[in-house]
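Sanity check. The docking grid for zinc ion depends on where the pocket ends up, so I'm generating a full predicted complex first rather than guessing from homology. Inputs follow.
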Amino acid sequence: MSPSPAKSDVTLIAERITNAVMEHRLPPGVKLAEERLAEAFKVSRTKIRHALTVLAKEGLVTLYPNRGAFVASPSTQDARDLFATRRLLEAEVVRSVIARATKADLRKLRAHITKESEARLANDRRAVIKLSGEFHMLLARIGGNRYISKLMDELCPLTCLIISLYDSPHTPACPEDEHIRIVEAIERQDEATATRLMLEHLQHVENELKLSPQDKVDIDWDRMFA
Ligand SMILES: [Zn+2]
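Predicted complex below; grid placement will be based on this.
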């Protein structure tokens, strides 16, 4: 553990790979070759290896002895288990947000919703997917339960991975307008409605999942992290 407040190279590399997964630029099952990543990030292979170990602990990367690291490819059972877990956690998130959110927190939520709408209007699918995931991480942070927040920081990127694996290519990660309705219920302090809307929302996202194989994606390793 680094005591320094500045993020280490390893943390930054792990974050950027996570972002690439959240934006569906790195599809499930793709090999993460150390030498290629070391070139793209202009760092040593040791740092890349450490970053991949961090991501493996979070479930986003799978390490195979003698074969190397691959973007994880969760099964359909994993997908169902993940959504079941999120329904448990996020009902509590909504309750704690209603109990603890300040006016500034509510403004942050509104600002996030605005960014999501702008990305939708601009047809920026990558941004929509990433912002959709980040909405849930933001709610968890505002909820203030750091154990749940830590879990959500891990589960949201995994959800994006599952969506890129099992969703139809043109469905956005979170159905439009559902986030705003959750935020409105939170602003009204209407716990019953906010919790119900969140559970329905997660069910809708899960219902979009399909078992169709996914299209091949061309990956430009050097430009992705430039
Ligand atoms: Zn959502």
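Relevant for the grid: The chain has two domains: 9-73, 76-207.
Also worth noting: The two ends are 27 Å apart (CA to CA).
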